[in-house]
Amino acid sequence: MSKKPTRAPAPPPRTPRQTGASVSPDRVRVELEFEKAYLMAALLGQFDAHVHALERELGVYISARGNRITIEGEADLVARGRDVLRYLYVRLEDGGAIDVGDVVAAVALIGDASIEGIASADNGLASTAVIRTRRKTIAARSPTQVRYIEALARDQIIFALGPAGTGKTYLAVAQAVSQLIAGSVDRLILSRPAVEAGERLGFLPGDMKDKVDPYLRPLYDALYDMLPAEQVERRLASGEIEIAPLAFMRGRTLASAFIILDEAQNTTPLQMKMFLTRFGEKSRMVICGDPNQVDLPNPGASGLADAVRRLDGIEGISCLRFSSREVVRHPIVGRIVDAYEGPPQDG
Questions:
Q1: pTM above 0.85, yes or no
Q2: What was the pLDDT predicted at 204?
Q3: pLDDT (tens digit, 9 = 90+) per residue, 51-68?
């Protein structure tokens, strides 16, 4: 008669019932039974894509029948796979959606020892490392994103540094929209320096709005992801949401506002000082940028690097640093970032 594995803890109330048996001294088999069978298709993915991704990431064997999933492999990897499935199941129970990227991200999150309680009895990460907006719920997809979401809810000024695709601006806009909806702030202000990456503004057709809007397009895109289009348009018209070049911030004091500066590596130290001193009562600021993508004539004169150096350690100000390993776009984007940041290739 087979014995139940001794390594796996008793399942939490919201997660599936677990049974299992030892296969060999170094391999175990664990069976999970999920209560809500209608969630199984989403959990497994189309053509079992989520199962295949989990097998690939952990090197375990997974089979599913009905509302039961069996995981077989090395004990620690089986336990990790079990926690990943529990976490994803809770996400689905809470009304979220998952894709293959979420599966890969969950493997990284649950394997990160620096995040306490990641696989706690109530799967606390599923409810704490998320931002809820009108159109979607955004969950953390990397260990730094977990800490970033916590900082966005806690600190007054946050610097988010790292390559494109790590979610710096997207999560900041999500948090800003969430606070605007909740009434924690009265206004949402999104800004970018209009610095040409090898192009010239003067040659673009149209008035000033037509010239700067292309630079602010990523901010518009994020907004339309968080709010219905009619709400975005109405709030833009009323001034609740403002999208403007950095130069338009001069001379203002921004109270009860959530203010985001994107592409901050393209500010000068004087521009950054001007922006930071706009901070008013009941406000929150997020400064996002990639120190390795400076488009200024003198890349060494970036106001972002200068500000991070000057403000390090000041209470109420936090700095999060993302790496290329945390790019949450297509995996090839992370490899491209690594290739460009590494030493140049001969030939």
A1: no
A2: 52
A3: 999 999 999 999 999 899
**Angle subtended by helix axes 49-58 and 100-110, to nearest 10:** 30
- Amino acid identity of 271? Q
C-alpha torsion angle, residues 35, 38, 40, 41 (rounded to 10): 180
Q: How far is CA 144 from the centre of its chain?
A: 8
With contact defined as beta carbons under 8 Å apart, do 327 and 334 qualify?
yes
Dihedral sign for Cα 154, 158, 162, 164, please.
Answer: positive
Residue 103 · residue 54 · CB < 8 Å: yes
The tokens for 305 are: 């690097």
Rounded to whole angstroms, the Cα distance separating 280 from 291 reads 27
Among 5, 16, 171, 8, which residue's Cα sits nearest to residue 87?
16
Beta pairing class for 284-289 and 257-261: parallel
What is the tens place of the pLDDT at every residue in 282-320? 999 999 999 988 888 887 889 999 999 999 889 999 999
Distance CA 157, CA 264 (A): 14
DSSP 192-241: E----SSS-GGGS-SSHHHHHHHHHHHHHHHHHHHS-HHHHHHHHHHTSE
Angle ∠(282,288,293) on CA atoms, nearest 5 = 160
Q: Which amino acid is at 60?
A: V
DSSP-derived 3-state class of residue 4: coil
pLDDT tens, position by position, 68-118: 999 999 998 999 999 999 989 988 887 778 888 888 888 888 876 555 544
Cα diameter, the chain: 80
Given a contact cutoff of 8 angstroms between Cβ atoms, the answer to whether 100 and 143 are in contact is: no
